[in-house]
């Protein structure tokens, strides 16, 4: 099945629909191919084309698009006032081969639209939904030919984001999914196959990025700006608190609730009381002027780390290796987290002189914690550690080129537990046949700009270390949230 020579109908002329129409039109170089654009609101399709005209002409002015390409793309976009109109117009050129729906995220509305379309298009026309959260199987229920319905999930902004999740429902024909996969590549995108399960790939695997920070905030482990700085240090473009403020806490909370409910209230996806309180208080983030941070000010700067000169001198002396993978400096054990708290390590080592640091090696390229700042690293201390011993540990970490910030003594600290949970969620997605490891890596890097894919992190860290940390989290919290994926446990050597 080849859709490259067919015309396309995009239903829904909002931000997503207009973006899809732009991408399709810019990719269609063969004369006669067109992109029909329809919206239920009168005049919306014409308004969207006017906005696209401004956008494309702006690209010409910046030298990013030729005048000929701009005019060609705009000529191929045809606003239509009724769905029936596309049937008549289709007779003047290549037949309509694909309909992409980008309307409101309501199951009954989408079902109604596709049932109407079935009576208008030819039997070989593929029907695609841009849904980000609704079951493709459920949308197809009631269609005469459910096998031709497939998910074609783009990411916003469509012209810039490379990823397309090609989502197959229970009755989606393999040939249809493959045809959309190939068409997505022709449109300059990077497609990945996914099975229709709650959240598909990206929205499912990304849940721990928010959930772990919300859990740490509920435990009062650290302030939002420290948590965000730790994650940005290992290459995430935005910290989770900052990102939730951008998305909107009402939206993020609604998605979390949807995934939680769709997974039959699996504790791994349980919503946060911290976020519900923000939503209840109208503190929705950027759009309300306040969420975790106040706007337009945004994320406040971290305080400078100060250490006594005496401690700096002591820390500069030779450090010996610690049997737990860390070092001993002036009698202070400084150990990368393996999931045990500093209190637990102190008990195991028989000394209170213990500092646990976050694990960042192999978890992404470190970046500065801000203009002129060193990478930020979380650490925790055991009960009974003296002020002088703490200062020695801080001075040693500073000498290693990082900026240490103390957090509460929680298992896995910040980066390690978050990345471990992202790996675990991705492993479960592969275990359940939602995607392949390669598909998960591509989806997370291209769909949400992660610095690496979960299976790339797994390769760098090793299954033994990830599983050990998760098992200790599971033992500490005694719940279902941190249970290890069978796929991941099977790779422990």
Structure report:
The structure is a single chain. Helix 9 (207-218) packs across helix 17, helix 11 (240-247) crosses helix 12 (249-262) and helix 17 packs across helix 20. An eight-stranded mixed beta sheet has the order 3-2-1-4-5-6-7-8, sandwiched between helices. 49% of the residues are buried. With 493 residues, the protein is α/β, with parallel strands linked by helices. It has three domains: 7-196, NAD(P)-binding Rossmann-like Domain (Rossmann fold); 205-288, N-(1-d-carboxylethyl)-l-norvaline Dehydrogenase, domain 2; 309-406, 2-Layer Sandwich (Transcription Regulator spoIIAA), CATH 3.30.750.190. It contains 21 helices and 14 strands. It has helices spanning 15-27, 44-61, 67-76, 83-90, 107-118, 136-140, 174-186, 202-205, 207-218, 224-233, 240-247, 249-262, 273-280, 309-315, 342-349, 387-399, 415-431, 437-447, 454-461, 463-477, 486-489; strands at residues 7-11, 35-38, 77-80, 96-101, 126-129, 149-154, 163-168, 190-195, 320-321, 327-329, 332-336, 354-357, 376-381, 403-406.
């Amino acid at each position: 099945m080849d859709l490259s020579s067919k015309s396309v109908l995009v239903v829904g002329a909002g931000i997503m629909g207009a973006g899809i129409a732009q991408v399709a039109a810019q990719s269609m170089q063969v004369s006669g191919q067109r992109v029909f654009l329809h919206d239920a609101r009168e005049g919306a399709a014409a308004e969207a084309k006017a906005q696209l005209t401004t956008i494309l002409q702006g690209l010409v002015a910046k030298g990013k698009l030729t005048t000929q390409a701009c005019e060609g793309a705009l000529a191929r976009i045809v606003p239509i006032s009724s769905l029936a109109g596309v049937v008549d117009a289709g007779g003047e050129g290549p037949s309509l081969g694909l309909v992409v729906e980008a309307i409101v995220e309501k199951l009954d509305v989408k079902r109604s639209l596709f049932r109407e379309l079935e009576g208008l298009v030819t039997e070989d026309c593929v029907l695609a939904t841009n849904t980000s959260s609704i079951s493709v199987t459920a949308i197809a229920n009631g269609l005469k030919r459910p096998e031709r319905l497939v998910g074609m999930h783009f990411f916003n902004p469509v012209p810039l984001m490379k990823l397309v999740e090609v989502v197959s429902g229970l009755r989606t024909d393999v040939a249809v999914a493959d045809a959309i996969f190939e068409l997505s590549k022709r449109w300059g995108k990077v497609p990945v196959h996914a099975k229709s399960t709650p959240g598909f790939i990206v929205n499912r695997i990304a849940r721990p990025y928010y959930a772990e920070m919300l859990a740490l905030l509920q435990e009062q482990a650290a302030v939002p700006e420290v948590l965000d700085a730790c994650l940005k240090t290992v290459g995430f473009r935005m910290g989770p608190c900052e990102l939730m403020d951008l998305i909107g806490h009402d939206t993020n909370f609604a998605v979390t609730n949807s995934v939680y409910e769709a997974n039959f209230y699996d504790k791994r996806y349980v919503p946060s009381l911290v976020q519900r309180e923000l939503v209840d208080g109208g503190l929705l983030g950027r759009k309300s002027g306040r969420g975790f941070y106040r706007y337009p000010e945004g994320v406040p700067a971290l305080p400078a780390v100060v250490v006594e000169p005496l401690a700096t001198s002591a820390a500069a002396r030779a450090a010996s290796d610690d049997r737990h993978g860390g070092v001993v400096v002036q009698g202070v054990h400084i150990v990368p987290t393996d999931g045990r708290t500093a209190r637990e390590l102190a008990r195991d080592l028989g000394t209170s002189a213990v500092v646990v640091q976050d694990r960042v090696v192999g978890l992404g390229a470190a970046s500065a914690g801000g203009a002129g700042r060193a990478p930020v690293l979380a650490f925790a201390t055991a009960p009974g550690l003296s002020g002088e011993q703490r200062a020695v540990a801080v001075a040693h970490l500073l000498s290693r080129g990082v900026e240490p910030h103390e957090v509460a003594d929680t298992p896995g600290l910040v980066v390690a537990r978050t990345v471990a949970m992202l790996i675990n969620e991705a492993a479960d997605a592969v275990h359940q046949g939602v995607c392949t490891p390669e598909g998960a890596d591509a989806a997370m890097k291209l769909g949400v700009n992660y610095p690496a894919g979960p299976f790339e992190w797994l390769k760098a860290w090793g299954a033994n270390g990830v599983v050990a940390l998760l098992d200790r989290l599971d033992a500490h919290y005694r719940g279902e949230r941190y249970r290890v994926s069978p796929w991941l446990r099977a790779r422990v050597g």
